[in-house]
Amino acid sequence: MPVKRNYMKKRGLLAAASMISAAQAANPGGYEVVGDSLVSAQMAFLGRDGNVWIVDKTENNPAQINGHPAWAAVYNPKDNTAEPKDVVTNSFCAGGAVLGDGRWLNVGGNQAVTHGGAAVNDYPDKPNPYQNEDGGEAIRLLDLAGSKEWSDNDQFMTGRRWYPTVETLGGGDAIIMGGDQWGGYINGESQNNPTYEFYPPRDGDPVDFDFLGERTMPINLYPLAYLLPSGRLFVQAMYAAIVWDIDQKYEAKTLPDIPHAARAYPASGATAVLPLTPENDYNPSFMFCGGQDIPQNGWGDAGGPGFDITKKWADKSCVKIQPEGSDNPEWEEDDELPEPRTMGNFIYLPNGKLVLLNGGAKGSAGYGNDTWAVGQSYADDPTYMPLIFDPSAPKGERISRDGLDGSDIARLYHSVATLLEDGSVWVSGSNPNVDVIQTPDRQWNTDYRVERWYPTWYNEPRPQPQGLPDTLSYGGDSFDIHLSASDLKGDSDKLKNVKAAVIRPGFSTHAMNFGQRYLELRTSFTATSAEEGVLHVSQMPNNANIFQPGPALIFITVDGIPSYGHWVTVGSGEIGVQPTHDNSQLPESSVFEKSNSNAQDSSSAWSSTKSVYGGLLIGALGCVASLVDFF
Ligand SMILES: [Cu+2]
């Protein structure tokens, strides 16, 4: 039996104090060290059980399981305990995502290794102290509704993939793309795997994908790939960007080159699908911030960059593009970061803003035994300060640090972050080393500390909406949520400022969260009294390519303060064509008539429509005049 380790117990009195105030942050806007990840958090995701599931590469972590060092763990954010989990194959720089049936997929990796990351196969007697198997073709699955144990070493991909990208598709299956065979700092022709395949597998796997050939060498590992509403994929690597038709297997659109810098691994810009909202008609834009600007032929080879990259400032530009909805999409400059950043990680907050954290101001992802490396790190100058990016703010005012505090823990290569149910962000990892190193005062060690970063509003009283559903369909009947007088602070006019958002926190690794999306549902409302009311909420838009099926969290935000997240299953809960229905029709919004207790009277002069928010509603007669009440 694995032994649970309770970090708080080790911290004595200080721990006792922080457990009493478990629901309150000591430092809203800042970080708190809360626990121990047991294995280095190279990959992590929030499961539907509320736990953070961690996967590392095979290495000499002190935590043991089944007679060998562990390289997976599960962390409970409610009591800050963790226990090791068993993964059989070497999951080094794997990819991952959640499938439409709720299972977590983790694919690819490296051959079996021994001390110091050396390949077991390089030794005649094949010592295997870590008891790991080759993970190059591995398909690992975790079923949180089943065994809650990784199944591994029993299903395999068509070929070796180290640094593969995984994106869930509209049918809840996943595309697995790219990677190389034997790893290293960057890709190379001799070991490239410029193909994609699917899980569950499809006839015809693997499919050739020339985009990942010479055109995007060498910065095309972990290609940045996102599903579009059409079912096509937006793919970005090196400087190139395209729209790829998966079914017809052709380049449907050649987009302009991304300006300023390379963004894919190991340049590792921060990336995000911007919020999908009624205002943008759920047409996604993709944002890239930071990265590293080195010419295509200047990146060295699989052994490293060949120069001291730890002295080279990262990029600080933010650019975005909306690939569909126009004939000739262009890159658009967004607000510049306050400092250069590589390996920054964007995490959605429930109120539609993003926090950017982790990373460094110089260098890139990767590590090696180069004389110039900082320890073994190819990055330096950790960026300790988070920032908030508000996509809905006017240009020039989108980035803010009001009320924020930094961490004092470096989160460089192999660090992660994920949203938690309470709206805080779980941060861990950083291990720019070939194997575990924890030498005092050395830069930069393997770091097992878990932090939580708390949004500035973390300690505010939270709305407690009643009637949240457990499933969301693609189209179909709207549903009602009750908001009490305390949720609305005694003023039902606050219903005008309520948002319902669905967030998939995604699979975090290498400064990306595969599958992370934010979708704001259409809403209208009925004030049932001066103090309380009902929020009418539509189902998901009736296109599963906009927000893929599978588990997600729904949050209700009142005046910028979100509820705790409630788990929903988006879609059927199964892999396959998702049932769709007509988009939800919402009742007209109605405010409470203050001089007349009959709030249901929609013909009242106070009644209005939320068509500006709701989009679907055709304004009824009389609504035009009453909109004046709103704005
Ligand atoms: Cu890696």
Automatic annotation (TrEMBL):
- Which positions are tagged coiled coil? none
Question: What InterPro entries is this protein classified in?
Answer: Gal_Oxase/kelch_b-propeller, Gal_Oxidase_central_sf, Glyoxal_oxidase_N, GO-like_E_set, Ig-like_fold, Ig_E-set
- Which Pfam families does this one have? Glyoxal_oxid_N, GO-like_E_set
Q: Which organism is this protein's natural source?
A: Wallemia hederae
Q: Name it.
A: Galactose oxidase-like Early set domain-containing protein
Q: Where is the composition biased (Low complexity)?
A: 594-605
| Listed CDD domains | E_set_GO_C (cd02851)
Q: Which domain of life is it from?
A: Eukaryota
**Disordered: annotated segments:** 578-605
Is Chaperone one of the keywords UniProt gives this record?
no
Where does the Glyoxal oxidase N-terminal domain lie?
A: 133-456
Every copy of the Galactose oxidase-like Early set domain together lies at 462-570
Keyword terms, alphabetized: Signal
Q: Does the keyword Signal apply?
A: yes
